[in-house]
Amino acid sequence: MFKNLTSALVKSELYNILTLNLAPQTRTLATNPEEIISKHSQFLKTLFLESVKSVQPSTLIKNKIKVTESHLSVGGRTFALQKPCYIVGFGKAVLGTAVELEKALCDGLQRAIVTVPKGIFEQYPNFKEFLRKTECIEGAVNNIPDEDAMDGARKIKELVETLGEDDLLIVLISGGGSALLPLPKPPISLQEKQNLIRSLSKSGANIHELNAIRKQLSVLKGGGLARLARPCPVVSLILSDVVGDPLDVIASGPTVSSLDDPREAIKILEKYNLYTTLPSSIKTVLDSSHQPFQNHSTLQDQSSNNTFNHVFNFVIGTNKIATKAAENLAIENGYQCAVISHKVEADVDVLAGHYSELAREILAGKSCKVMKILQELPFELEEDGVEKLMGFGFKKKMLLIFAGEPTVVVRGTGKGGRNQQLALSLSLQLNNWQEASPSGKSGNISFLSAGTDGIDGPTDAAGAVGYSGLVRECSGLDINPEPYLKNNDSYGFSSLFRDGECLVRIGHSGTNVMDLHFLLIDPED
């Protein structure tokens, strides 16, 4: 049987350094601050690993899809498999999904092409033993479109264009899919598009803004792939890496009718002061979109008139599955636990301030202030999670779970990612509070921020752990974390501090449902 991404993940560095029993823990009496921090850090990493395992392709295929000799069933719909079946896919989770589907479809599968992030092959070197009909192409180093990714996108386009109504196309879509499906509209070059997306990212553009631009500049995005496949029936299996799971945004919506106003792309570029410096090729494509705009109702009418009625989109994996796995394990280990939000979107420095203030007021036992802070958070909350939190005993240890995808503005020249930046920023803000209120309520606040794809920025880490005593510990080691934070060099700091113990390393996880934030508050330590 294929030693799939789940088993590979279990063998990863993260798993090997963990020794915690996943059964309910007995209360330890550690009093040494370093022992306490190590214990909490290990537990948070264990929770993260369990979350990632819950959204592995093998688990999702088993739970969400049923394949027999004659039919494929998903999301309450059934599709006949008497037709020749083809697969195309792009993203961080498609390798494991392709393996599981090729195994299930057997002789019914005619051909498959999937594009995956650079580095996947190195982590899972034996995957080719289990893919007889699937061509796998690596590309998009550090999630930036490149020639290899464009070659894969071109091959996917050529395959899709040959299909007819007597075929069945299964499309595998997951996080990272946009970077792995770059086929710019002529006369735009890949380098021109690449430079623009990089500039937007560094300017702090969120995923919605990035994908709005990508859709206007790409052949396959914004429903382009589905249009090329018509009239072939299309079944899309989607792992969401976007807050709120909007189908037209995930991987820039290659199988979804785009409802975007083309003029929005120009407004976004103007917002970040990038429009006036655009290459003429990109301006040409954007200007050509200024035909009378088809509004939402027009596009919806068009969709009902058979443009997209051959397409069936199913979301089989979301961050709610991952947070539920973490919540269950935390409760088993004696923690009060609440999932506060699945839709975190904010700048990481702003977010660090909110998390820090929330944890401090919980330690102080001030329920009124806790509720006020929650109401001021700049993203949608889970009502039942908030209700749970307000019913907790604030003198007992608790874990608060947040999920989503914040942003970071890169101002320095260092190396890091939004998760590592968030963990370090929170640690510094907690220290500022402790220095300002030395007689405040004691206790321990620990925090993990990590991406479920296993990669945070151009680093080999998924994220990092931070905690309330980190800065104080640094002073004894003659390390000042603040310059690292200002230079966006969170990876440089975490690699040096404690020999990298605070980094969360699992390599490419083979899945992606955005970032997870675990805020652990223990008044007894």
TrEMBL record:
Its EC number is 2.7.1.31. InterPro entries: GK-like_C_sf (IPR037035), GK_N_sf (IPR038614), MOFRL (IPR007835), MOFRL_assoc_dom (IPR025286), MOFRL_protein (IPR039760). The gene is LOC115874501. It is an enzyme of class 2 (transferase). SUPFAM superfamilies: GckA/TtuD-like. GO terms for molecular function: ATP binding; glycerate kinase activity. This is Glycerate kinase. GO terms for cellular component: cytoplasm. Residues 44-286 form the MOFRL-associated domain. It catalyses: (R)-glycerate + ATP = (2R)-3-phosphoglycerate + ADP + H(+). Residues 399-515 form the MOFRL domain. The keyword Acetylation does not apply. The keyword Nucleotide-binding applies. It comes from Sitophilus oryzae. Belongs to the glycerate kinase type-2 family. Keywords: ATP-binding, Kinase, Nucleotide-binding, Transferase.
